[in-house]
Design brief:
9% of the residues lie in helices and 35% in strands. The chain has 363 residues and is mostly beta strands. It has 2 domains: 161 residues, Jelly Rolls, CATH 2.60.120.10; 130 residues, Jelly Rolls, CATH 2.60.120. The strands form 5 sheets. It has an 8-stranded antiparallel beta sheet.
């Protein structure tokens, strides 16, 4: 027979609701845990540069740098190569010109230098061992850089005022010192100036499909809406995954792209990714729920980070909600979605439920 006094005591205890931690933080944390940052917040570098994600805050997976600045007449940094760091340049606002060429083929004269003028939504991916430099072109430009693995941001923070005779943009380091930061100047590389319709060098830009090469041998250029796309229909909603790079282009180190989705009508499923995940909002409004944290509602420019093996879910609040994603390891949410989707040839999801498969067109 149950212990009646004990039972009455338990029933009389006040209800204790589960305490949830706030996901929003004022600046980039120094340890890897879930967090969200408002637009423009993060670890400040100065000169319009902010790190909303660092090697410390991502557990070494990647870092994300936002640069807000005016244009310049020439390249903002000397041509150089990284041997351990993969660097992507994503235009958010204004225009950015980026140059790139594989170092080995440059030395052997077996490839042609490429350059693209990136407008909002365009990206240039710079693998290891690739000569690159860039310049901002508009009075009001935002460039988002993704560097993998995390930790390269320490180079920027150690850059000081250049003494007389130092390399422009080198922060006072001599050539030998730069190598210790995975920066190898290539001063015999001359950026080409013969751009026509936003490009110079081989490959399509806004004049045809931009394909992913499946390796890390050369720069990758994806114009907004011209890269591969995959449509996923589940839980009464559509999602369009548009990858910029995948594990195949990064030797499994990370992936990056955009996801566009509608609010839908069904329940939103939980995601537990084996790798770190970050979203940066572009359009609309997104609600993100991370286990143990309060719901966070993200709008244009806001960022959320979720470490590996932490469950989360997300849903669009506004129609045509879009965000840029970065995942560590190349096995993230994009691959989970693509595996359930199909090739798609439009930047827009269907206005009504899909009909037979014959309606689909492959990219």
């Amino acid at each position: 027979m149950p212990n009646l006094p004990l039972l009455l005591t338990l029933l009389s205890l006040p209800y204790q609701a589960t305490t949830l931690s706030p996901l929003w933080v004022p600046t980039t944390p120094q340890t890897a845990h879930p967090y969200a940052l408002k637009k423009g917040h993060g670890l400040p570098l100065g000169g319009g540069n902010t790190f909303p994600i660092t090697g410390n805050s991502s557990g070494g997976a990647f870092c994300l740098l936002n640069t807000n600045a005016a244009g310049s007449p020439g390249p903002g940094v000397f041509p150089h190569v990284h041997k351990k760091t993969y660097e992507n340049f994503y235009a958010v606002k204004g225009r950015v010109q980026l140059w790139g060429q594989n170092l080995d083929s440059f030395i052997a004269n077996t490839s042609v230098q490429q350059t693209r003028v990136l407008s909002a939504g365009d990206i240039g991916a710079i693998p290891w061992n690739t000569i690159h430099t860039f310049r901002l072109l508009e009075p009001d430009t935002q460039l988002t850089g993704v560097l993998v693995p995390g930790g390269f941001e320490e180079f920027f923070f150690h850059m000081g005022d250049s003494p007389p005779g130092a390399l422009p943009g080198a922060g006072g380091f001599d050539v030998a010192g730069l190598a210790g930061w995975d920066v190898y100047p290539q001063l015999n590389f001359t950026p080409r100036r013969d751009v026509v319709n936003g490009k110079a060098g081989p490959g399509n830009w806004y004049d045809g499909p931009n394909v992913l090469p499946g390796d890390a041998a050369a720069p990758i250029w994806i114009a907004k809406g011209y890269g591969p796309k995959y449509l996923v229909e589940e839980a009464g909603r559509y999602q369009i995954v548009a990858p910029f790079v995948t594990g195949r282009e990064t030797n499994g180190s990370f992936s990056q792209g955009t996801i566009t989705l509608n609010p839908g009508t069904g329940e939103v499923g939980r995601v537990t990714s084996p790798v770190a995940t970050a979203f940066m909002m572009e359009e609309g409004q997104l609600e993100v729920v991370v286990d143990g944290y309060e719901v966070a509602s993200l709008i244009d420019g806001d960022i959320v980070f979720v470490p590996a093996n932490v469950s989360f879910s997300y849903r669009a609040v506004a129609e045509f909600t879009k965000f840029m994603y970065v995942t560590g390891g190349g096995k993230g949410i994009d691959q989970l979605l693509i595996a359930k989707g199909r090739a798609w040839n439009s930047a827009f999801y269907p206005a009504t439920k899909l009909g037979p498969v014959r309606m689909m067109a492959r990219v």
